[in-house]
Amino acid sequence: MKNEPIYNLLNAINYPEDLRKLNVDQLPEVCDELRQDIIKELCCNPGHFAASLGTVELTVALHYIYNTPYDRIVWDVGHQAYGHKILTGRREVFSTNRKFGGIRPFPSPEESEYDTFTCGHASNSISAALGMAVAAAQKGDSKRHVVAIIGDGSMSGGLAFEGLNNASVTPNNLLIILNDNDMAIDRSVGGMKQYLFNLTTSNRYNQLRFSMSRVLFKLGILNEERRKALIRFGNSLKSMAAQQQNIFEGMNIRYFGPIDGHDVRNLARVLHDIKDLQGPKILHLHTIKGKGFAPAEEHATEWHAPGKFDPVTGKRFIANTEGMPPLFQDVFGNTLVELAEANPKIVGVTPAMPSGCSMNILMEKMPKRAFDVGIAEGHAVTFSGGMAKDGLLPFCNIYSSFLQRAHDNIIHDVAIQNLPVVLCLDRAGLVGEDGPTHHGAFDMACLRPIPNLTISSPMDEHELRRLMYTAQLPDKGPFVIRYPRGRGVLVDWKCPLEEVPVGKGRKLKDGDDLAVITIGPIGNTAARAIAQAEAKFDKSIAHFDLRFLKPLDEELLHEIGRKFKRILTVEDGIIKGGMGSAILEFMADNEYKPTVKRIGIPNIFVEHGSVAELYHICDMDEEGILTKIKEFIN
């Protein structure tokens, strides 16, 4: 790699065993070099930036103290783990991070034995790590340590509390590290707190405590229930003395902290001292998101994934978008404000993605009518259902891949009651560099069987605005609008807000030899392929924008079924159970017998890469659609 800095220590660290050869006093220098390496790489190869800078010391301390990969480190919100990747054999290829064919954007067991569990979505670390800890105990593997790292807002997810609750009653030696970057528990102060912390994490204290408990157990004075009661009592005493309380007090989980998560030597000492303690433990760290890079420390949100930037000045290189079509998310955000100004019942809900989905526009204009509920997709949907039940009209915006986590809530808390909740699914379809955990592949196939839902997808910005307007009209029930990440096709995106008849598609172009049926913005790609095909092959091709997956436009489909012997469906969703499957079902149910071929996301987990690259390998780009048309009509 050209112009690579010469590091005193990092260049000799290929794997954690190399790190463990160093003296503990050398760890701060390792952290400085690792932080600079992350900055150097990400300034020209964009990725998730601020979160990984905030976990540098934690990453170094964990791999220094624990015998990884034998010991299990389970990351939560994998965008914190770039330092982990660099220290575990991937530094030489880290420049390929998020690139097609390169290393993955999030930890994956398929990539490295050091990556113990998939962690593209938040809040799953405690449950997964608890499972590993129990598995180790079941197999008699008493030497294996398991550590879950949760933070960066992940404690707001319900699954985290489910795992925590189970960890409190299941025999285990799990260590849960709460990486609190001012998004979780409040900071505590006071000399007594520090004294108690130093006492309760010392080896001598814990050895004495363990010996006494073992003797009391043998004498029959102490049993498991009394032990748990003593832990609760001890936590209560610590809370009184330190003038603070935490959510772990009554859960039979020993609590340590909070401590400075950027003091790597002290962190290594603490991890060493509590590593072999019996029972579940919580270590609470305070860290700074973006630590070590001033612009990221000051503006952590915009430096979450900043794109390319100057590593010296911190200047971000933002592309000139003048004269380009807007992002779909911005059309959503501005249209929502427009609708809310006219309809006082409208409120906005998002699970921790206000800037990513442009809900921040409504938050700035009408702060009392917009709600960020944290990383809690299921709650976002049920919360929206509760508001809808009592007369409000929520627009609940969730990334498509994250909506999977609220499937039960959609059925039980919205659809069964036919409540007027508008589910706006941003990032539908292939999203690009974030890879398989983030592609919005499954929403159409998952939602299509649910009664009472209206499911739609706009082909362009005008259609998005009209569908949003339609969804908030009376008696529309639960209404899904899915649209992709990225830009639309219309520079002049504003249009009058008019009702779209629910369940009505559009004939965009007539033809005789082949019917192409599309849904959503991929219809624009199909339209270009159709124009090429007609010019090259002298065929007449009809194009239909289905617009609604549910209810289907049966009148339009009867017309197609009667006229065409060959039908090609194109969708930016999983091919199994999606729009093409709905067309096949309709044709079979009505005894039409056309030959139907389908283009869509194949029944695999598509890897990461640019959207253009992924469309190409899935035959969903203009070239792939043109090739399929040629095969079909010749």
UniProtKB/TrEMBL annotation:
NCBIfam families listed in its UniProt record: dxs (TIGR00204), PRK05444.2-2 (NF003933)
Top-level EC class: transferase
Required cofactor names: Mg(2+); thiamine diphosphate
Quaternary data: Homodimer.
Family membership noted in the UniProt record: Belongs to the transketolase family. DXPS subfamily.
Gene designation per UniProt: dxs
Protein name: 1-deoxy-D-xylulose-5-phosphate synthase
Comment on bound cofactor: Binds 1 Mg(2+) ion per subunit. Binds 1 thiamine pyrophosphate per subunit.
Signal sequence bounds: none
Record: residues binding Mg(2+): D152, N181
Job description of the protein: Catalyzes the acyloin condensation reaction between C atoms 2 and 3 of pyruvate and glyceraldehyde 3-phosphate to yield 1-deoxy-D-xylulose-5-phosphate (DXP).
InterPro entries reported in the protein's UniProt record: Dxylulose-5-P_synthase, THDP-binding, Transketo_C/PFOR_II, Transketolase-like_Pyr-bd, Transketolase_BS, Transketolase_C
Keyword list, A-Z: Isoprene biosynthesis, Magnesium, Metal-binding, Thiamine biosynthesis, Thiamine pyrophosphate, Transferase
Cellular compartments per GO CC: cytosol
Molecular function, one GO term: magnesium ion binding
One GO BP: terpenoid biosynthetic process
Binding sites annotated in the UniProt record for thiamine diphosphate: H79, G120, H121, A122, G153, S154, N181, F293, E377
